[in-house]
Specification:
Chain lengths: 149, 140
């Protein structure tokens, strides 16, 4: 009888342990997922005017852009933004043209969020005419504040 | 982006805790599930005392949900969020407050009309789940 109770107790402990381990795994997953999303959003590596102008043809470029005009065939024009703090960006005088297509990955939003006035983080390749062919556009509108210089 | 991270983490963790909260009363009483899992055999204390983890997690869920709502409001991140989803979340937060009040009443083993209050506790839970599903769908 005593040994039956011991076995039952051990089984109960094992079940609780498995349940708690599953919950811990779920917690780890959501922390990792949220962290990677936040990291993607703050990956504004070359949001600097000088760095941007040094980008050679064929090299990859990462920058934050305030869209002024969203034209046909995925053409976006706007001004480069310079990172001041994690959530504040400054407008610069540098004009940027980006070209997106159906292959361009839209993160943290939908293609409809790419419009005039939107703030986006662009990752792409510098083309011959200094137009950036966008591989990925992260929608930052609402998450960052834009200030004039 | 820290506020985005903490808003996201607090929301998902609160959602997982809601799931645990719902499962706990079924796991902690003697029924086919707890017997099948083999945890019913280890029940020694009375049901209401075993439920103490359910009470404390309930307070934690309510607190965490409040933090989850307060963080983006304070950081000003609400502009691009879907408004319908935010209204669903607001209603869910109110229902969570009601759920805490009903839960506090149910802790009293001498409660009059316990069956009715338990019914309300169950249906408010269903309401919270539906509202949270809508909130996650629209804002997740």
């Amino acid at each position: 009888m005593k040994s039956d109770a011991k076995i039952a107790g051990r089984r109960a402990r094992t079940v609780w342990f498995v349940l708690i381990a599953l919950i811990a795994l779920l917690f780890t997953f959501v922390v990792w997922k949220s962290g990677s999303m936040a990291k993607t959003m703050s990956a504004a590596a070359a949001s600097d005017e000088q760095d941007f102008s040094r980008n050679a043809v064929g090299s990859s470029a990462k920058f934050v852009l305030e869209i002024a005009e969203s034209g046909s065939e995925g053409k976006l024009t706007g001004k480069l933004l310079q990172k001041k703090t994690e959530e504040i960006y400054m407008r610069t005088a540098t004009a940027v043209t980006v070209r997106s297509n159906s292959q361009t990955k839209i993160v943290m939003g939908k293609p409809a969020d790419v419009h005039a006035g939107a703030v986006v983080h662009v990752t792409g390749i510098v083309q011959k005419d200094q137009v950036i062919a966008a591989d990925q556009i992260v929608i930052l509108t609402g998450y960052v504040k834009v200030q004039s210089e | 982006m820290n506020s985005f991270f903490f808003t996201s983490v607090s929301g998902w963790i609160a959602l997982i805790l809601v799931g645990i909260e719902i499962a706990l009363p079924y796991l902690l009483q003697r029924n086919w599930l707890s017997v099948w899992l083999g945890i019913a055999q280890s029940f020694e204390s009375p049901f209401l005392r075993r439920m103490s983890i359910h009470y404390w997690l309930g307070y934690l869920v309510a607190g965490l949900s409040f933090v989850h709502a307060w963080l983006p409001m304070q950081a000003g991140h609400m502009r691009r969020a879907n408004m319908a989803g935010l209204w669903l979340a607001t209603a869910a937060l109110f229902l969570l407050g009601l759920q805490v009040a009903l839960g506090l009443a149910l802790r009293d083993s001498d409660l009059q009309g316990r069956h009715v209050v338990r019914g309300w506790h169950y249906w408010v839970m269903v309401g919270v789940v539906l509202l949270l599903t809508g909130h996650v769908w629209l804002n997740g």
